[in-house]
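## Example record

The block below lists the input lines for one assembly entry, exactly as stored, with component labels intact.
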Amino acid sequence: MNNSLYNLIAVQFKEFFREPAIIFWALIFPLAIAGVLGIAFTKQEEPVRKIAIIENSLASGSSNLAKLIERNSQATVNDLPSFEFINMTAEEAALKLKRGEINVFIEVAEQDRLNFNFDPLNAEGRLVYLMLENNFLQQDRIHALAVKPITTQGNRYIDFLIPGLIALGIMNSCIWGIGWNLIEGRIKKLMRRMVATPMRKSYFLLGHIISRAVLAALEAALLLIFAYYVFDINIQGSYLAFAVVFFTGVMAFAGIAVFASSRATTTTEGNGIINAIVLPMTILSGIFFSYRSFPDWAITIIEKLPLTMLADALREIFNEGATLANVGGYIAGMAITGLVFFVAGLRIYKWY
Amino acid sequence: MIQLDKVSKSFKGVKAVDQLSLTIVKGEYVALLGPNGAGKTTLVEMIEGLQYPDNGEITINGLRWKKDDTQLRKLIGLSLQETKFIDKLTVLETMVLFGSFYGLSKERAKEVMQVVNLEAKGKAYTVHLSGGQRQKLALGIALLNSPQILLLDEPTTGLDPNARREIWEILLKLKQERGTTLILTTHYMEEAEQLCDRIVIIDSGRILGDGTLSSLLATFSRGEIITFQLDRKPSNGELQQLKGVQELVWVGEQAEGRLVVEDITQTLPRFLALINAEGIALLALGSRKKTLDDLFVAMTGRRLSE
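Predicted structure tokens for the full assembly:
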């Protein structure tokens, strides 16, 4: 039989897979982001830090400094950064400082006294100062320092990043995929034409939501497989919890998408509304960097954003071995969010 | 079959449809004729249940929108003034999708594609269709459920004459074979003349005239027209006083004009004799019966195409 719900779902898939550009943005692009960010933050080599020595001061002065420098120029403690000392004039040093090529320059003021010149607000400058200070002042105990790099699964940046990217993917897939398609249907008067038939409106919305849920699952699966092979990432917690969180996440954003698409009748309006929802969450919800550095009052708000809930729940499942019960709060929060927005959206929905 | 009783609809204080009453019986082909902004679309969309009147009542086969939506939707087939389809869906898939809303099989979709001459385009994406093909697809979708009432909003606007004629043929065939009731809006008088037994002239949300083409012309605008261009104007008043002339209109600065006459066969020889006697050269000459456009100008002072 020619079932209308089946058709409405199939239409969405056909539209998706027949548009090469959409496939790129929805499937390939997230992998590329994960790859680039993952590599950028994990495979990065420690830079050689360049430090200027003011020539005059060296010539005029300290016998000790030359020795210190000689020793320190080779000083790499385990994986700690190495330094490169360059002799130059005070003018050159000032210029290089302005250009950001160096962060610190050293001059000898009196016998054995070193002046470290750097902007105290420049974190990198302070870091260099601290490292060098340590080296210069504690020559004898230099080998007592040791660094233990963190490489255990679940604690790396990439472990933080991948669940966040999955959450971001679900949000974008639902809000753009459902919300934008619905708005476009209204702009093209296609929705109006469909509503003028005995088609069930619930099927119309379900067709969009179900097809998106499947596509979002496909996107997430691709990202997971990629992360598993390239970055050795596993789901440490419950798979069931992952599945439930995934689908309540879809539910939350599908509800928001229906709400967002409920009235817009022009491209500009639709674009604006969707961006107004997507952009703040992308920035605030701690997808790329933790939102913990925001002020406390902001954190209490950020924690309640659906994207934050989804990303946090996924991280707990991936990295902390969370079970379904552990993430129950997030699940409830997202389900309620979805339901409230869906019902509110339907109430004001502009079908014609 | 369709009854409108003092129906009104305003948008932001502007009356699109104003206290309009209209009864359409089964099997009638009715044209709603009027210029852009006359209220035609608002009127048909209220009949289609896509807009609700502020005042007044619409009944279709005794059914009312808001109460009997589902039944009415099954009864009606329609095409909107402008619908874009899903770009990357083929013609057949689009027909099957819409068919599924009525619980119709794929076979029915194919059958209707033959009716609207689109079988050859079954596998084409809708985005690649020409304007005429797109209108035929819209018409095909409207015909899927074998509707008792067909409502078409400007089905041939923007089409070339061939495509237009093709759609007319489909519609005329439908009239003979199925006895469908049709309401179409148009601002092409030719379309109204060719397709419809009954023409309802609408402007500013009101009905100005309602009847067959000949009865409308007989009631509102008698006479026939002679158009001409001369090398100079004849002496004052001579043309006006010619027997059978109802009206003389000079167009522009040149000696170019239009005579409204009772009967061309009577007046034309007199006109020619007059300019001959005055030694005026005739540069151009035309004669025709009055059309809906003349009728419309007579009623509203504006042309249909404005």
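Residues 161-178 of chain B form the longest helix (18 residues). The longest strand of chain B covers residues 14-24.
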